[in-house]
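From the shared-data thread, chain only:
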Amino acid sequence: MFDPGELLTALAVGAAALAFGYLAGSVPFGLIITRLAGTEDIRGIGSGNIGATNVLRTGRKGLAAATLVGDALKGTVAVLVAARFGEDAAIAAAAGAFLGHLFPVWLKFKGGKGVATFIGLLIAFAWPAALGFCAVWLIVAAATRYSSLAALVASAATPALLWYFGGPREAALFAALAVLLWIMHRANIGRLLAGTEGRIGAATGPSPPPG
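Structure, as C-alpha cells:
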C-alpha cells in the first residue's frame, strides 16, 4: 500500500544527500592547496581550471598529486557517508558531488572537468571498476599520449564496467556522469579533432588525467 509518509521521508533523505554531496564536491582542493603553498592563483594560468592538470602547470608535481587525491577522495567520502542511509542516498550524493566539483558555488560555478572526482565516486561504488577505468586510461594514454582522450575513452567504458562489477543503477548513474564529463571536455575534443591537443610529456602537454 502506498505510504505518503515513506515517500516524503525518501525525498527528504535524497535531497539531503544531494546537498551534502554537492557541498563536499564543491571543495576546490586545487585552489586551496596552491594558495596554502603560496603559488599564484591557478585560475590565472593555463586553462584557468582548478583541477590537477592545471595545478601541474605551476611546476609543482606534489601539489598536482595532492589535488588529484583530494578531488577523488571528496567523491569517495560523500558516497560512503550517504550510503549509511541507503543506496538511493548514495546515488544522490554521488550526483551532487560530481555537480559540486564541476559547478562550485564558491567559485561562481566554474570548477574542474571531473575526472578525479569521477574516479573517486567509482572507488566508492565498485573499486574493481575503478581499477578497470585506470587500466583503460593507461592503455589509451600509452598508445596515444593524449591524457584527455584516455579519460574520455575510460569514462565511456565505465558504464559497462559497472554493469559487470556493480549493477544497472550504478551503470546508469555513471553513464549520465560520463556525458557531463564529455561536455566539460568539449574544448579538448575540439583540439583532438584538430590535432592540436597537447600530448603527455610534451612541453605544453598535461601529465595527470585532467581534473
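The mean pLDDT is 90.
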